[in-house]
Here is the input.
Amino acid sequence: MPEPKPLTCKICQGNRFQLKYEATYVYSYILDGDAPGLNNTKELLPFMYDSREQQDSKQYLHCDTCGFDYPCYFTDWDQEMGFAALQKIIDHAQVPSSS
Ligand SMILES: [Zn+2]
Here is the structure.
């Protein structure tokens, strides 16, 4: 297999990237006779929630060099997708013009 080419930022030509996944969740704790949350008795343990609702999520490829964020979806990442697909996302992204 050929050595994969590193991802290249089309703005700054940088090769260092991080995938970022931002998500917002609301956790609910039902109030009962003791600590909030049916699974909590003495104290409120944040991970012992009764329900969790995802409000929002955002995934992007962050260029470490210039700080630009390329929106993408990588939760369905597989070998098929790989770096070529990520490079395509970069190449097709709308970026501020350099004029
Ligand atoms: Zn960059």
In short: Strands lie at 17-28, 51-63, 69-71.
